[in-house]
């Protein structure tokens, strides 16, 4: 670590820096984020929005998946200028965590009910398998929790400096080719540690992924901690552990510790890594508070040594690295066999946007054609499980009648968009509608384009929609149009891929939002013209 930083300290608890070095740390020290639940139920939901303590409103509410929405009508040019209170609407975004993306019919219907009753019908699938609702009023929150919790769902630690939703393959336990079913380990971590004060004050968010999926759909390379299914030399199934991945404004891929973790050890290894992050993570500056910075400074050897010596109390054996992902698209769209002889049907709404009514339709179809089990994916898509082969085409037709495509174009299948200016206070530009419009335009202009191609659209320099690992990454910002006006547009990143390279920011390469379809069409036509046999866009 550079000497200047050592002198000032990074706010690492384990080195004795317990005094808060910024406002967020101070808020967390003043009161655990988990304690806000009682105040929401007993006071704020009864006394109304104006009764909410600002430190709860803009801080601790996140521990229960609640953010104030952006006040409508404030343009992106004001995002960086205005104070939080000027950007705040009186409504909330609520994130429902769906660990492993696994939903029973009752759970899906509960979310659909909450959406239609309390969230003006909104429901967005996120790229971390959550469902986000909007327009939620503080008065409704206790009733929403009651509905969700009655079916085993929760918003606890869906946001905030906490262990967020745990990613899992939507086909866990049913995929014919999976290395290992990570569902029991996801449940165990959830039951032991989510909502526990042991990990409710981390330096920042902590994103986990556990999967034995051969497509590696949980994108282990960009999670704070990831367990990837492998088989060791003795034929034993377990996990390879990766730590320190993350995108945002300083993207880094996670690093392998090189250790083999048995399934029964997963929860304590997870707790050990989360504990290192809690104790040694940098708390002085928010933008350096993710575990990736610690890993970057320490390296995987030192990290593993501390984990084994001080947190586990035993050494982990070395283990194999996972192979390359199977298939060019790391997703589960389409009709494919399960190992029990049934089929799963993965389908694509546009950029994850659905609504409460559609969720009810999906729940009906899942029960009519399958067992009712539904999964959310890490690409803003959904999967219906347990469909007999002879009924898959009828289900596909019913889904498509609701514009939920089972055989979508490349553009619909692989375009993702973050929340953007419609609801997000950090946004500079619109994303969801532009993403939907872009898909429609490209489908019309390039109907024969079938190569894998990811287009990810962000509304600001953060990377909620993973722009740095997209073939075409679009970072929202204001740009100057031909008439010299400041308008919504995007900085272009080209050639990114998960685990490969981060997309290159081509200097000065920006497009206005209006010209976006023309720009993407030009790039893709040039690719089609110049590509050699078998060459992908990523190549
Ligand atoms: Fe908001 Fe920016 Fe994240 Fe989009 S990338 S959801 S605009 S913070």
3D structure, described in words:
This protein has 539 residues and is an alpha+beta fold. It has helices at 3-8, 23-30, 36-47, 54-57, 84-87, 105-118, 141-149, 183-193, 266-280, 291-298, 300-312, 356-369, 392-401, 410-414, 432-445, 516-530, and strands spanning 66-70, 88-96, 102-103, 122-125, 131-136, 163-168, 206-211, 225-231, 237-243, 255-261, 334-337, 343-347, 353-355, 374-376, 382-387, 415-417, 455-458, 472-480, 486-494, 504-512. It has a 5-stranded antiparallel β-sheet with strand order 1-2-5-4-13. Strand 6, helix 8 and strand 7 form a beta-alpha-beta unit. The radius of gyration is 23 Å and the shape is globular. The model has no long low-confidence stretch (mean pLDDT 95). The structure holds iron/sulfur cluster (SF4). Iron/sulfur cluster binds at residues 418-420, 424, 426-427, 458-460, 462, 464. The site of iron/sulfur cluster has 11 residues, from loops. Catalyzes the reduction of sulfite to sulfide, a step in the biosynthesis of sulfur-containing amino acids and cofactors. It catalyses: hydrogen sulfide + 6 oxidized [2Fe-2S]-[ferredoxin] + 3 H2O = sulfite + 6 reduced [2Fe-2S]-[ferredoxin] + 7 H(+). GO terms for molecular function: 4 iron, 4 sulfur cluster binding; heme binding; metal ion binding; sulfite reductase (ferredoxin) activity. Its EC number is 1.8.7.1. Belongs to the nitrite and sulfite reductase 4Fe-4S domain family.
